[in-house]
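User: Before I run my own analysis I want an independent prediction to cross-check against. Here's the chain; please return only the structure tokens and, at the end, one sentence I can use as a sanity check.
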Amino acid sequence: MKTLNQRKYVPKVSLLTDEDMLKAYQDRIKSYSKRAQEVLDILTFKDGVIEGSNSFANVALASEHLALPSQVLHDSELNPGFFIGNYEDLGLVLRTNGDSFNRNDYNARNLYEQLKRKGFTPSEETPVMVSLRGLSLEEDGNSPYGLIHRLGEQTQIIPASELSHENHKRKFSRVDERGIPIFDSEGVKTFYTRQGGLDRVFLYMDLNLDSNWDRDKNLADSNTYGRVAVVENFSSGK
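Assistant: Structure tokens:
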């Protein structure tokens, strides 16, 4: 697998540039339902890099090799120029058992039950962040996306009160070892979030951390500014 490497220091994160891996993925998703294919078939190859990103396609493409939220965010602190101008999906954040945004409601309830069985109870006061790494997908005709996420052994699950709506638009410059913002009134980045429901969390192209504020609640949305962040030195040939 080919990756786009950073040069200024020893990184933990790289971006996928492997056209052969993408072609194999595009063949593989043809077995999914039409609805699921519409969600998954959003990745393209242009100018030497894989473009596009959403919370389903990234998992189907390279789940066990995706970078953790903390890895992407720490790398973005050390080498911001590598990430500016693109966005990287990092995980999912669940705040309530259900979602007022109807398209996410079924998936939110399903993930809530999975987390509860593992001993986690998401709430507006203490949302739970789930890494995309280690997740798998399952087709489900009850989901408006045609797909649901399944927790796996490698999935990182982090309850964090910092991700609650009371911190919407707060400033930060650094994140802690979990990848959670350390709020600072003098910070140069902004954290965006909404009240409840199930949302993506991603590093935005201006290096702000977006937990799908009202401007974008769609778990499947993607555009050409998206990039798939994986752990450094991962090779599809191994």
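Sanity check: The chain is about 20% helix and 25% strand.
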